[in-house]
Specification:
single chain, alpha+beta, 3 strands, about 55% helix, globular
Length: about 110
Amino acid sequence: MTVKLTVENVVQAKQEVEKLEAQGYLRDNIYIFAHYEEREDDINEALGTEEAGIGEQGFLTSMKNLVNSRGDELRNELASVGLSESEAAQFEKELDTGKLVIVANK
């Protein structure tokens, strides 16, 4: 089962991650996305959650993301963790407004 959430800030993200863990989700299967890559990295490191990497995206998509725009990269990453293309586009727009997106898989 895939859960998709948007939150306003890191405090809310931490609360949602804790709720997901209480529901049986592992931090290894919880992904937090932010529009700015550095912010995303810092949040995932602080909360012990995962980043969508080569394992989720595959080698070729990961290499393409090196030259893609951040928006394209985010849509590819969101799709790689279980979102449809339309969901990925919708959540990428949420990221553009400064929100965080959490995706958890069981």
